[in-house]
Design a protein that fits this description.
Layout lengths: L2 H15 L13 E6 L49 E7 L8 E7 L7 E8 L17 E2 L9 E2 L15 E2 L14 E11 L4 E11 L16 E7 L19 E3 L5 E3 L11 E5 L23 E6 L23 E5 L1 H7 L17 E8 L6 E15 L2 E3 L1 E2 L1
Parallel strand pairs: 10-14
Antiparallel strand pairs: 1-4, 2-3, 3-17, 4-16, 5-6, 7-19, 8-15, 8-17, 9-10, 9-16, 11-12, 13-14, 17-18
InterPro entries: DUF7705
Protein name: DUF7705 domain-containing protein
Organism: Sesamum radiatum
Length: about 400
């Protein structure tokens, strides 16, 4: 049997085990995503910015790979061995009341030092967080299914059990996907272990997809661009954006009143508010100086903007200083994700109309970046997304 075909069949089978039949589309609860950063550069199976790649020799500081098969899922031999990578997700709830509580554990190893584990609220159809294949989440789309129609989930007050942590909206159709600037996200996060000094723990990670000319994605991996915005709360992660490394900064920072501060303005640009920015690899007019994003880690070009706790984000409910919400400081957050994501810089071709920023994936979790034998452990509950409907702010709860 072809391994790729088997993998697709397996995903369809497992998805159907959690599927709820509904109109116009079924939905399949939360997505639990585990990803590895391993890449066999000699195999050339990963596209380069959406184009077919050529083999190239591994680089000392490049993608980890222990040899042939490094991109395969590891065999489970003994979970108690010191140098074994694994992930675990469990969820529980008191029947009839309270919230689902998701508990996560992620461990890296020498063979798998770069691992990611996320709890994602994805749409039921469309390109989830920029991937070129159809998503199957619990945020249910209405409309034409293009990623720009209505968003539906089970109503929280309908008397129906919406399933494990699938949030329910207090609205009636048409329901819309989270769109900048009009949505907030609320959840309770308790971090027990942080995953080490290279753990990029994302308090909030949102993903979308639009072309550089502002048009919505259509599945063409050479022109579609994944867009990510992520807040890292590990206090050990510092800013790569600084006055001597402007290429790691977005071209400008936007204040709440709409004023733009150029990254060359050393007196006023908040360098420490940004970890790193990189431009999509197919950008034709990136502002000098610039760095292109990793061309292989996504099936199409990607653009990444990572921010850090800083007073400039307090306006949106985000942490304002390092250590807030970290180990030993569990908190309930209510983040104005929509308004912040509208203010953040994302590349577009000069003269193109501004893209409508729809976010088909809302998630949190950690990315342990090339650091072996590290452990992260955290729990999430009361994960809600609050979106407007017909001009009214209507809330959801899980």
């Amino acid at each position: 049997m072809d391994a790729n075909q088997y993998a697709a069949w397996k995903e369809i089978y497992l998805g159907r085990k959690c599927q709820v039949q509904d109109d116009p589309k079924p939905w399949q609860f939360w997505m639990i995503m585990i990803k590895s950063g391993n890449m066999d550069t000699l195999a050339a199976v990963c596209p380069r910015n959406g184009e077919k790649a050529r083999p190239f020799p591994p680089e000392p500081a490049g993608f980890p790979c222990f040899g042939p098969g490094c991109m395969n899922m590891p065999l489970i031999t003994a979970l108690m061995e010191n140098d074994t990578s694994y992930h675990e997700v469990s969820w529980e709830k008191e029947v009839g009341k309270g919230s689902w509580n998701f508990r996560h554990i992620l461990k890296t190893s020498s063979k798998y030092p770069w691992l990611m584990l996320y709890l994602r609220s994805d749409a039921t159809v469309g390109y989830s967080g920029g991937y070129h294949y159809q998503t199957r989440g619990c945020s249910k789309w209405g409309g034409n299914g293009s990623g720009l129609g209505g968003l539906e989930t089970r109503p929280a007050n309908s008397g129906e059990d919406p399933g494990p942590a699938c949030p329910g909206y207090f609205q009636t159709p048409p329901r819309r996907i989270p769109k900048s600037p009009d949505f907030t996200v609320r959840f309770t996060l308790d971090i027990k272990q942080g995953g080490g000094p290279k753990s990029q723990f994302y308090l909030m990670d949102i993903g979308s997809c639009w072309k550089n000319n502002g048009q919505p994605c259509n599945g063409d991996v050479t022109t579609d661009v994944t867009r990510y915005s992520e807040m890292i709360i590990n206090p050990g992660i510092g800013s790569w954006c600084n006055p001597t490394s402007l290429a790691s900064c977005p071209p400008y920072h936007t204040l709440p009143n709409g004023t733009r501060v150029l990254r060359s303005d050393k007196e006023n640009f908040p360098y420490e508010a940004y970890h790193i920015y990189c431009s999509p690899g197919n950008a034709e007019h990136p502002e000098e100086p610039y760095n292109f994003c990793d061309p292989y880690s996504n099936p199409q070009p990607q653009e990444i903007l990572q921010i850090l706790p800083h007073p400039v984000w307090g306006e949106y409910g985000y942490p304002t200083k390092k250590g807030e919400g970290w180990i030993g400081d569990p908190r309930t957050w209510e983040l104005d994700v929509g308004r912040l994501s509208q203010a953040l810089y994302f590349y577009q071709d000069p003269g193109s109309p501004p893209a409508k920023r729809y976010w088909s994936s809302v998630n949190l979790g950690t990315e342990i970046y090339m650091d072996e034998n590290q452990v992260a452990e955290w729990s999430v509950r009361d994960f809600d997304i609050i979106v407007p409907n017909e001009g009214h702010d209507l809330k959801l709860r899980d």
